[in-house]
Specification:
- The chain is α+β, with helices and mostly antiparallel strands and 76 residues long.
- The protein has one domain.
- 16% of the residues lie in helices and 49% in strands.
- The chain contains two helices and four strands, in the order αβαβββ.
- Strands 1, 2, 3 and 4 form a four-stranded antiparallel β-sheet that branches.
Length: 76
């Protein structure tokens, strides 16, 4: 068997995902303005604005096995 990193990976048989989730980072309007210099939330994110706060879904975690080796990632 070829060893990583040079071996090709068949995502359908070499990877098994066993966990995953995502969660939001909540920004109030003044934080959004400080970061973007925009006075208001754009209409493109209006479905994620509740009570004047933007729920920005940028945090993720995933657990998987690559050829039997368990891997956990957390992206914040």
């Amino acid at each position: 068997m070829n060893r990583l990193p040079d071996a090709l990976i068949d995502y359908q048989k070499d990877i098994q995902v066993y966990a995953g989730r995502h969660w939001s980072f909540t920004l109030i309007a003044s934080q959004f303005e400080q970061i973007t210099r925009e006075a208001a939330f754009p209409s493109s994110v209006s479905s994620h604005v509740r009570d004047g706060k933007l729920d920005y879904y940028c945090n993720n975690s995933v657990g998987y096995a690559l050829r039997g080796v368990r891997v956990s990632l957390e992206i914040l």
